[in-house]
Write a structure and sequence with these properties.
Blueprint: E1 2-7, E2 10-14, E3 19-22, H1 54-58, E4 63-65, H2 79-87, E5 92-95, H3 99-103, E6 109-112, E7 117-120, E8 123-131, H4 137-141, E9 143-150, E10 157-159, H5 167-176, E11 180-184, H6 200-209, E12 213-217, H7 229-238, E13 245-246, E14 253-255
Parallel strand pairs: 3-4, 4-5, 5-6, 10-11, 11-12, 12-13
Antiparallel strand pairs: 1-2, 1-14, 2-3, 7-8, 8-9, 9-10
Length: 259
């Protein structure tokens, strides 16, 4: 398995038989409005362009996964990403609650049932609930999902999605024991309420609970995500987890065996 990290939460999971696009935010740099106007500097998003190798890798994507897409979450599916999925008729797996929203955008959708192990590309996928924020702000942000993916002959992969550290997340790490776990580490927040992603402390707890390697993404691409790659690395050093946590650059293609 290879993982091609495009930008923010957008990545491509590459196996021998399939290329799975996760949460495509394909907009040009600065094409989207700021996600915070007061708490963080109101810079237009994305803060960085797509990497130079993105389009060639996107050309032969055959499947997509969307963790969440309603209530303005353009950092996980923007207009350009939706048009890409619709135009290419890419089979797109999603939460059942997102099915109608995606179908209205012309996307070929396959809804999943929460916490049910279902067949997926010759293997299995399990949708894991994701709580997008601490406290009342999670009600505003809406629910999302993570995915535990088991492909034939490949390491098991947990994409946690936009979530704080919950009992569901802990159980995936302790009971399903993913070989690789991807965590959104940018500690995003909007202008009101508590953080809507894990704090750095939660990211470190996530990493300590994970039985395998942990990859931190959702970094340095949006104006409401203040945590940097360096800060994640320094926190991992303080926690004695620097050998366990990998922090890819945009455009990096990671061979799982080399993590």
């Amino acid at each position: 398995m290879r993982l091609h990290f495009l930008r923010n939460a957008s990545l491509i999971v590459i196996s021998d038989d399939h290329k799975i696009l996760v949460d495509p935010m394909l907009a040009d740099k600065g094409a989207l409005p700021p996600f915070s106007l007061f708490r963080h500097e109101p810079i237009r998003n994305p803060l960085v362009p797509l990497p130079a190798n993105a389009m060639s890798s996107l050309a032969d994507v055959d499947t997509a996964l969307i963790t969440h897409c309603q209530r303005g979450h353009a950092d996980h599916l923007d207009r350009r990403g939706a048009r890409f999925l619709a135009r290419k008729r890419i089979p797109t797996y999603c939460r059942s609650a997102d099915q109608n929203h995606l179908r209205k955008r012309g996307i070929d959708t396959y809804p999943l049932a929460t916490l049910e192990r279902q067949t997926f590309l010759g293997g299995f996928i399990t949708e894991i609930p994701a709580r997008h924020g601490h406290g009342w702000i999670s009600l505003v942000m809406g629910l999302g999902a993570g995915y535990f993916i088991e492909l034939p002959g490949e390491p098991s992969l947990y994409i946690a999605g936009d979530t704080v550290l919950t009992d569901h997340v802990r159980r995936v790490l302790s009971e399903l024991k993913p070989d690789i776990a991807i965590v959104a580490a940018g500690n995003a927040s909007v202008d009101l309420g508590n953080p809507i992603l894990m704090t750095l402390e939660e990211v470190m707890e996530f990493a300590s609970l994970a039985p395998g390697r942990v990859i931190a993404n959702h970094l340095e691409a949006l104006n409401h995500c203040p945590v940097t790659r360096l800060q994640v690395y320094e926190a991992a050093q303080r926690a004695g987890l620097e050998a366990k946590i990998y922090i890819p650059d945009d455009g990096e293609i990671l061979e799982i065996g080399s993590v």
